[in-house]
Design brief:
alpha/beta, Cytochrome-c3 Hydrogenase, Chain A, domain 2, Rossmann fold, 405 residues
Length: 405
C-alpha cells in the first residue's frame, strides 16, 4: 500500500498545521495542542474522515491485536462520540482487517483476514514473554497456539506505523505489576509482561529500543488506562496524512502528554494554600489521599472525557497516574500519599504545599519553591539547586531562569 511521505513536525510551514501545497494534509496533533475539548475533531472532521476513509475504502490495512488486557481501550475508542464522523468511524471499525473483539469473523477465517504487512499495526494489552501462552492468537502450522509475542515480532517490522494503545501495550501496565510475593518462583512480574518498546520506564520492550517501523518511527505510545479516544483518532489521522508526531522521551505524542495534571488541576488553589483533604470527599487538595497529579502528564484536564463532560479530579477522584510508565506499582498503594525524593530528601506533599505558602510570604515566589521541592519528579530537576539558593530577600519577580514552564 502507498502512504504519504512522512513529514516532520519541525518542518511545518504554517502555524495552523497546513503542509506544503495542500491545506487538506494537516498535523492534527500539532493543532490539538492547547485546544479545547473536541475543537480539533469538530473543526476538521471532514479532513479526519478523509484520512480514515483510506482504511475503510481498502486503500490501507489496519491490524489490531490484543494481548494481556481488559479490552478497556477498545471500549473507550468504540464509545468515542463524534457525530460528524459517525459514519466513517463505523466503517473504519468494521474494515479493520483484524480485531478480535469487534470483527464478525472467527477462527481460521478471522486469521486469514489479517494482513501480513499492515500499514498500521495497533496493539492493545501487554505482551507476556516469560509465559507466552498467556496471550495467544490462532495457531502455528503444527497446530499449537501461536503466542502474541510471535505475531508482534512478525508484523511490526512489516508495518508502516506501530501504535501501542493503552498503558499495557505502551509500558506493560497492570499485568507488569511487581510479583512482590515471588509467587511460583517467577520473575519480576508473573508472566514477564512487557510493552512493545518499554517495560515500565526502561527500554526493555518486546521490540527493543532500536526498533523503527517502515515510516522510520519508533512505536507511538498512546498511554492511558484506558486511552482517551481522541488520542487514537487524532494520531491515526495524523500518521495517515503523512506527518511525524513529535514524541516525548517515552514516545508519547507531546501535545497530549506534555501538560502536567497538577498544573491544570481545578483543586490547585488548595495545594498552594496548603489545604489538604484527609479522606475522600473532603474539601481540599487530594494529594494526601493518593493523587498522582504532580507526576502525571496528559491533557485530559482540558480535553475531558465522556464527550467533553468531565474528568477524574472534577468528581472528587484523585489522579491515579494511569498515563505514566510504571503505573501502577509506581503509585501504589492507591489511596495513600505518593512519596517522592527531591533535592532536600523525602518531602511530603503537605510539606511542599506549606513550603509554598511560607515562601510566598517571604518573597521567594511559588514557582521557585515548586522547583525547589521537586514536585513532579523523582529525580529532582536542574533548576532546583538554583531555586533553593534563593534568599528570603530575593525579588519576587521571576528571573530569566525562573519562568513558568
Amino acid at each position: 500500500m502507498s502512504l504519504p511521505e512522512p513529514e516532520s513536525v519541525s518542518q511545518a510551514s504554517e502555524a495552523d498545521g497546513s503542509r506544503g501545497p495542500s491545506s487538506s494534509r494537516r498535523n492534527f496533533l500539532q493543532l490539538a495542542a492547547g485546544a479545547a475539548a473536541g475543537t480539533i475533531i469538530t473543526q476538521y472532521s471532514t479532513e479526519i474522515g478523509v484520512a480514515l476513509e483510506q482504511a475503510t475504502d481498502g486503500d490501507l490495512e489496519v491490524v489490531w491485536l490484543q494481548g494481556q488486557a481488559c479490552t478497556g481501550c477498545t471500549i473507550s475508542v468504540l464509545q468515542g462520540q463524534y457525530p460528524t464522523l459517525e459514519e466513517v468511524l463505523s466503517e473504519f471499525r468494521l474494515e479493520v482487517t483484524f480485531h478480535p473483539t469487534i470483527m464478525p469473523e472467527a477462527g481460521e477465517v478471522a486469521i486469514d483476514a489479517m494482513s501480513d504487512s499492515p500499514d498500521v499495526l495497533i496493539v492493545e494489552g501487554s505482551i507476556p514473554v516469560d509465559i507466552p501462552e498467556a496471550a495467544t492468537v490462532g495457531q502455528t502450522p503444527d497446530g499449537e497456539s501461536k503466542p502474541l509475542v510471535d505475531w508482534v515480532q512478525e508484523l511490526a517490522p512489516e508495518s508502516e506505523y506501530v501504535l501501542a494503545v493503552g498503558n499495557c501495550a505502551s509500558f506493560g501496565g497492570w499485568p507488569a505489576a511487581e510479583n512482590k510475593r515471588n509467587l511460583y518462583d517467577l520473575g519480576a512480574n508473573v508472566t514477564g509482561a512487557r510493552g512493545l518498546q518499554f517495560e515500565q520506564r526502561t527500554e526493555r520492550g518486546v521490540l527493543g529500543p532500536d526498533f523503527t517501523s517502515g515510516a522510520g518511527l519508533p512505536v507511538i505510545n498512546l498511554a492511558g488506562c484506558p486511552v482517551h479516544p481522541d488520542y487514537v483518532l487524532l494520531t491515526i489521522a495524523t500518521v495517515l496524512n503523512g506527518h511525524v508526531p513529535e514524541l516525548d522521551a517515552y514516545n508519547r505524542p507531546k501535545p497530549f502528554y506534555e501538560p502536567l495534571v497538577h498544573d491544570n488541576c481545578p483543586l490547585r488553589g488548595y495545594f498552594d494554600r496548603g489545604e489538604f483533604a484527609e479522606t475522600p470527599g473532603d474539601e481540599g487538595c487530594l494529594i494526601k489521599i493518593g493523587c498522582a497529579g504532580p507526576y502525571t502528564r496528559c491533557d485530559d484536564q482540558t480535553r475531558l472525557w465522556n464527550d467533553g463532560t468531565s474528568v477524574c479530579l472534577n468528581v472528587g477522584s484523585p489522579c491515579i497516574g494511569c498515563m505514566e510508565p510504571g503505573f501502577w506499582d509506581r503509585f501504589a498503594p492507591m489511596g495513600e500519599e505518593v512519596e517522592r525524593q527531591s533535592l532536600f530528601g523525602s518531602i511530603t506533599a503537605e510539606q511542599a504545599g506549606w513550603a509554598g505558602v511560607a515562601a510566598a510570604g517571604v518573597g521567594i515566589g511559588a514557582h521557585a519553591v515548586r522547583k525547589a521541592t521537586g514536585y513532579g519528579s523523582f529525580d529532582g530537576d536542574e533548576d532546583a539547586e538554583a531555586a533553593a539558593e534563593a534568599s528570603p530577600e530575593s525579588s519576587a519577580e521571576p528571573t530569566d531562569g525562573d519562568t513558568e514552564d
